[in-house]
Amino acid sequence: MTSNFLKLFLIFFSLSFSSAFAQQIFKISGQIKSADGPLEAASIQIVEAKQTIATDSLGNYEITLKAGNYTFIVSAIGMTTQKKQLKVGRNQVLNFSMDDSANNLDEVVISTAKDNRSLASPQMGAERLTMKSVKNIPLIFGERDILKAIQLLPGIKSAGEGGAGIYVRGGSADQNLVLMDDVPVYNAAHLLGFFSTFNPDAVEDITVYKTGMPSQYGGRLSSVLDIKMREGDEQKFSASGGIGLISSKLTLEGPISKGKSSFLISGRRTYVDALLKLSPDSTINRNILYFYDVNGRADFQLGENDKLTVTGYLGADKLGLAETFGLTWGNAIASAQWKHIYSTKLTSATIASFTRYQNKIEVNTGIDNVRIFSQLRDWALKQNFFWQASDKHLLKFGFNSIYHRVTPGEVTSQGQSSFNDLNYQERFSLENSVFASSDWQATDKLNIALGVRLTGFSVLGGGDYLTVDKDGNIINATTYKKGEVVKTYLNLEPRLALSYLLNTNSSLKASYVRNVQNMHMISNSTSSRPSDKWLPSSLMVKPEISDQVALGYYRNLLDNAFELNVESYYKTMDNQIDYRDGAETFNSDNIETQILYGKGRAYGLELLFKKKKGDFTGWLSYTLSKTERQIDGINSGNWYNARQDRTHELALVGSYQLSEKWSLSASWIYYTGDAITFPSGKYNIDGQVFFYYTDRNAYRMPSYHRLDLGANLQLKKRKNYSSELSFSLYNAYGRKNAYSITFREAENDPTKTEVVRTTLFQFLPSISYNFKF
Fold first, then answer.
1. CB distance 100 to 35 below 8 Å
2. Cα(413)–Cα(364) distance, rounded to whole angstroms?
3. What confidence score (pLDDT) does residue 537 get?
4. Model's pTM, two decimal places?
5. Is 348:385 a contact under the CB 8 Å cutoff?
6. Is pLDDT at 599 greater than 90 in this prediction?
7. How far apart are CA 92 and CA 337, in angstroms?
8. CA–CA distance, 657 with 665 (Å, rounded to integer)
9. Distance CA 294, CA 301 (A)
10. How far apart are CA 331 and CA 531, in angstroms?
């Protein structure tokens, strides 16, 4: 009896142990990174488990699986998808090193899995470009400019030749949040827009969000441009640089403590002013035209769980006409970022930063010597947390605080000037926000991203705040003490994104996003200049609010060699700002009397078709769109074209690897002429002609189109040294695109009016020599 009982017990114990072992759970963790560092929000799909997770801010992931065989598929925007098989029977570490999709895609090891943008991810309206991919686009003025490159993507429009900004899905130039290592940049242009402030040798990549922005981003209506600077090499010292026709650059990088810390310093300067001095003409050789910028970064690995990154940027432009006129503007940025791993499931990133944008205008007529100075300064603290709550849930949450100080203008004079010194009132404000988001895999086909952001913008005292009637007359001016809360605007910003896998090669996505903007750039209706005014929300100036819905279809074709993406969107915008007719744009202290408020709408269809494999690669992008505003007091209260409205925009980009040493590239763009206000008539008063204007932006500039050509020649490529020559021809067929159109009386017949078209560039060649050792 006892013997039989013992046998039954042993059999029961054995079966129970076997069952427990069969159900044992193992932890699989690791890091996903590219050649430039860890990849945040990379997607990991475990096919057999029907689960998809994402990496945190340090590129780490963790998942628990039962014993068995699994297929891991890893994808990230702008990266080549990878596939690995893993037999799970113990706790393991599985790392991935991702390759840039701009490299030779014939080496892709998977054809039926998700593509580079991750078909299963609910994120839509996003594009990532690395400097490697920008290499296959013709140079512009000898520079591989990443902001110029993104203008070749659908839904992103150049502000025009020489323009200092971009328009994204109907938004104005100030409605784009430009971040350099998570720090806002208020003016991202050099030389009035012909260069960006981002030195290509210091940039790692750029991710552009046109819709469905993750909830940690906020403060602008239309887009986020998240630019990451490059990390220095921890193992060896190296130097790289380039010499072009109008600019040169040099980058130094290397270890501070080998394997534990690194530095990177990159500088760039144009020397047009030096070339002007060679002219014997005193009206030319006394002029000044140049810019410079310096980037610095240091990374310190403080043990296994902590990393400290310190970054800095300083850049400025100077434009001078002899000693009579001078214009200087520039940015300064400093930040410190601490990343900490609390556990395999919880990590954080803490960022403290300072940013300053300023401009200065100097006028010297010999009698009147006047200096006008303005600046904007931000102090900010941002905290992000990343929590892998389960295999199917990734939570992101945190807060962001920014203290804004705006100096709209200080006018000083010297000598016998007839101008009196004047200081316009400074404006102070505090912008706080909390945010949270969750990425959830609802089924093996349906993925959902939920997000919310709560913004509180407090207008602070330190001067007079106006109340203005509909005609621009001041009703009341109330004085508030410095630090006193004048008004607080609270706004909730919900966000939702969905993706549904139709099959292994295609998916549908939809999104809704609300954005709020409290910092506004007040610009006139025809141009964008460094002297444009930034204005915080106040008693009269309300926060701008946009609501955007979008729907997209994504498909991979012919064994992942081609990619087709189609997105449509509709966006409404409240509290839009525009100048009154005949406004005095220099009136900085009472700017509320010169502006009007209303609403806007934008809608469109975007198409992107890519060829990703072979010696010949490239893409075609097309945008069909409409952007309008309706503001009482402008155009009789009827809808009118916004400055950034363009019906059609088309870009063709291609590159061809001719041989091991030679690569060729070309890009062709076309777009409908900008909406603009032209005079409808003229009248004469006391012998002086005045032009008569009717509807705002009712006319069009001529259509714009241009072909750029490029070629790269690899001179030497050794283990410790490489060099190349880059050639480009801007506007290859010499199209006389209109930069501006003005009107004047005909010299021979004052009763007639002449149209004057100004063209900037025709057949502009450039060559640059680049090296690295």
1. yes
2. 10
3. 94
4. 0.84
5. yes
6. yes
7. 30
8. 9
9. 24
10. 13
Q: Is-contact 57 228, C-beta < 8 A?
A: no
User: Hey, which residues does 233 pair with through a beta bridge?
Assistant: none
Contact (Cβ atoms closer than 8 angstroms) between residue 512 and residue 551: no
Tens of pLDDT, residues 284-317:
777 888 899 999 999 999 988 899 999 999 999 9
Q: Which of 230, 71, 68, 210 is nearest to 128 (CA)?
A: 210
CB distance 597 to 579 below 8 Å: no
| Cα 19 to Cα 38: distance, rounded to the nearest angstrom | 39
pLDDT in tens, 245-282: 888 999 999 999 998 999 999 999 988 777 777 777 77
Residues forming a β-bridge with 86: 70
| In the predicted structure, residue 551 carries a pLDDT above the cut 50 | yes
State how far the Cα of 180 lies from the Cα of 186, in Å rounded to an integer: 11
d(CA 754, CA 612): 50
Domain ranges of the chain: 24-107, 126-772
Distance of CA 254 to the CA centre of its chain: 28
d(CA 564, CA 554): 6
The CATH label, of 1.10.579.10, 2.60.40.1120, 3.20.20.70, 1.10.150.20, for the domain at 24-107 is 2.60.40.1120
Kindly tell me the number of DSSP H helices and DSSP E strands found in the chain.
5, 52
Q: Is pLDDT larger for residue 250 or for residue 684? A: 250
CATH code matching the domain that covers 126-772, chosen among 2.40.110.10, 3.20.20.70, 2.40.170.20, 2.40.128.110: 2.40.170.20
Q: Which pLDDT score, from 0 to 100, does residue 101 have?
A: 52
* Residue appearing with tokens 């839009």: 576
Nearest to 71 by CA among 51, 56, 92: 51
25-34/96-97 β-pairing: parallel
Question: Residue 680 and residue 589: Cα distance in Å, rounded?
Answer: 32
Task: For residue 397, give both structure tokens.
Answer: 């949450």
Dihedral sign (CA 526, 528, 532, 536): positive
Single-letter amino acid code for the residue at 667? S
Q: Contact, 263 vs 241, CB < 8 A?
A: no
Least confident of 230-234, 274-278, 615-619: 274-278
Question: Can you tell me the mean pLDDT for 235-244?
Answer: 92
Please determine, for residue 526, whether its predicted confidence score (pLDDT) is greater than 50: no
Asked if the model's pLDDT at residue 585 lies above 80, the reply is: no
Q: What is the pLDDT of residue 21?
A: 41
Give the Å distances, CA to CA, from 464 to 144, 376, 425, 620: 46, 19, 8, 53
Phi, psi (degrees; rounded to nearest 5) at 609: -125, 120
Q: What is the largest CA-CA distance in the chain?
A: 128
CA angle 14, 16, 17 (to 5 degrees): 65
According to the per-residue pLDDT averaged within each range, which of 195-204, 574-583, 651-660 is highest?
651-660
731 beta partners: none
